[in-house]
Amino acid sequence: MSNKNIEPHVNWNGDFNWDGYSTILGAHILQRHIKALIPGYKVTDPRTWPLIREVIAPKYQAKGPPKYLAYDQTLVKSLTCFQGSRSRPSRMSQHLTNLFLYYPFNYDRHNQLREYPHITPDELEEWKKQMRLMGWTTKQEALNQNGATNDHTNDEATKDVSPDAAVDEIMKMLDDSDTDTDMIPYTRVVELEKELEKTREQVSGANKRADTAEGGIKALKVDLAGCSNDLKKSREKVEELRDKVEDLGDEVEELKDEVEGVRYEVEELKAKVKQSNKDVSAAKQKTAVAEQKTVVAEQQILKILEGMRKKKQGAGLQKRQSSKDVSEAQRKKLKIDV
Questions:
Q1: Domain-embedded: residue 43
Q2: What is the tens place of the pLDDT at every residue in 67-82?
Q3: H or E stretch including 71?
Q4: CB neighbour list of residue 2: distance below 8 Å, 6 or more residues apart
Q5: Are 30 and 38 in contact (CB under 8 A)?
Q6: Is residue 223 part of a domain?
Q7: Given its phi and psi angles, is residue 13 left (phi above 0), alpha (psi -120 to 50 degrees) or beta?
Q8: What is the secondary structure of 245-261 as a DSSP string?
Q9: Which range marks the domain in which residue 62 is found?
Q10: Is the pLDDT of residue 146 over 50?
Q11: Is residue 106 a contact partner of residue 114, using CB atoms and an 8 Å limit?
Q12: Which residues, other chains included, contact 166 with Cβ-Cβ below 8 Å and sequence gap of 6+?
């Protein structure tokens, strides 16, 4: 086996339009259209796939471009359907887990985008192996398997096949049996495909409503987290204020004790002031009495002084009179002597 990388078989001429081919049945019709333009094209052989560089994509790209074709890497990067979704699991998110199976030229076995469209020989074998595990078999392999197993075994085997893989296998069998189509109830497949697509649309709508509800729940959770945070802060503030109130209560009790002490001191001072007032009143009374006694004593002193002055004046007059009498007597005596 060659070690050379496998690249797309041919380039697709013009724009590639897959609008209206989003269902599996539509994809089968599209594959027949591709076969008409590229006769060697086979879904089961990537070496026959064309390289598509330009597309006319429908507005609704949730299911991605048609599978089992090669696309230019720049084109793959530009398609929003390959960006994935972080919401609840959906068909598209499951689709993105099988990128290697659906777009092996663009994604490697680890579902990582390649640098350019190609497949290594080892990966081609890996791709074929995984496709067989998904239930893809050729017409002859399917007939051999049916001949080697009973109906019960087939029923058990189909339990592990997804609806997409089952329809894909049916379409593949139709594609491989252009003349022997009576073996497959074609109209019933179309009806089931329509019912399946309708159910998927209902599921998609339910998922969208669920996504909207989850978005609302997330917003409410954010609001709840904010309210819880505010409540926590408020409780912490209340506890802080409560501690301050308790501290202030202790201070108030201490101040009450101080007030009682000051009040006692005030009462003592009032009592002292009252006693002082009494003492002052008594002192004033004593002072008044003393002043009265002083006035009386002063008056008595003045009277005594006046009496003494009068006595002194009387004694002086008497003395002068006595001296006068003595002088007169002496003068008379002298006259007699003469």
A1: yes
A2: 899 999 988 888 766 6
A3: strand 70-71
A4: 121
A5: no
A6: no
A7: beta
A8: HHHHHHHHHHHHHHHHH
A9: 10-208
A10: no
A11: yes
A12: 135, 158
CA dihedral 1, 3, 99, 112 (to 10 degrees): 160
pLDDT tens per residue, range 79-105: 766 665 444 444 445 555 689 999 999
Q: For residue 338, what are its two tokens?
A: 């003469």
Shortest CA distance to 194 belongs to which of 23, 61, 18, 2? Answer: 23
Predicted local distance difference test score (pLDDT) of residue 141: 44
Q: Kindly report, residue by residue over 199-236, the tens digit of the pLDDT.
A: 777 787 888 888 888 888 888 889 888 888 888 888 89
Give domain status of residue 243, yes or no: no
Query: Exposure pattern of 280-309 as b/e (b: 16+ CB <10 Å)?
Result: eeeeeeeeeeeeeeeeeeeeeeeeeeeeee
Kindly calculate the radius of gyration of the chain based on its CA atoms and give it in whole angstroms: 66
Is the Cβ–Cβ distance between 71 and 103 less than 8 Å?
Answer: yes
Start-to-end Cα distance in the chain: 213
Domain count of the fold of the chain? 1
The sign one gets for the Cα dihedral 118, 53, 68, 182 is negative
Residue 259 included in any domain: no
Tokens of 268: 């003592």
Q: What is the DSSP letter of 62?
A: T
Neighbouring residues of 22: CB distance < 8 A, sequence distance ≥ 6: 58, 60, 63
* pLDDT for the residue numbered 110: 92
Least confident range of 166-170, 206-210, 212-216, 244-248: 166-170
